[in-house]
Amino acid sequence: MEVRRIIGIDPGLAHTGFGIIDALGNKIKLVSYGVIETPSDEEHGTRLLAIYNRLQAVLMEFKPQQSAMEELFFAKNVSSALGVAEAKGVVTMCLAQNVIPLCQYKPAQIKYSVTGTRSADKSTVQQYVKILLNLEVEPKPDHAADALAAAITHVFSTAGMDYEI
Amino acid sequence: MEVRRIIGIDPGLAHTGFGIIDALGNKIKLVSYGVIETPSDEEHGTRLLAIYNRLQAVLMEFKPQQSAMEELFFAKNVSSALGVAEAKGVVTMCLAQNVIPLCQYKPAQIKYSVTGTRSADKSTVQQYVKILLNLEVEPKPDHAADALAAAITHVFSTAGMDYEI
Hints:
Chain A is an alpha/beta fold and 165 residues long.
């Protein structure tokens, strides 16, 4: 069995979270996490370019072999959903350019994989991310924790095992 | 007064139309137009990457100095709107990467600039694109004509003149 390196990404125009883990079967270890922030007073295209450039740098540095994202669903805030979709397009293109396969997971599936319940709230997911990765503190900001949750879901889904406490 | 080269783009996951014109004041001349098609049986990321790569090639070949797009509005078909938004994100990022300023125009504004009425239908817009650019036939497919219409709108808006028959 070989170690797989997985990047989870939570795309957004203002904040794109990323989290990288190494997995051996369903054993996981944190490699890195962070957030790509783009200031709202910058031009739209400049912000999307910053996401692309900084994600490229992260992929170059950590060389993940697989990637995971939450499936996009339509929020009530249509204009923010559009920004998220545009950022997601850039992220998806960048992953394809680096020949990193992408799997997408439904929000309920991520909650279930990480916490064991489909209706867990955000803070419960973050707590479980901390426990599962043996971290001393919960990963901040939320976008990084959500990205790590997607990466963890990918490991558990593709290792063919459920998480057991 | 210098000739400006403008690219209009009509982004979409399956079809991204583009149209390039040269403008001297409000005098315009067709340079090229076409459509970037991506097959629906290909992976999502591969399709977005194809849009990026082929748009890059178009920008390298024709070197437009300015760009124009129609503002995205939400169609009834939410899933196709998401694909359009993702493609638009990739296109917008690619333009920023090539340092080509982008202006966006509302659908009614494009119709008005090109036809003189805000409620013109698609085929009227295409007819006027043909007339304004002195073409022998209407540009096909629709996506290319819509891209040219955005480019024409940009010329008339920024040359500070309305089109007069």
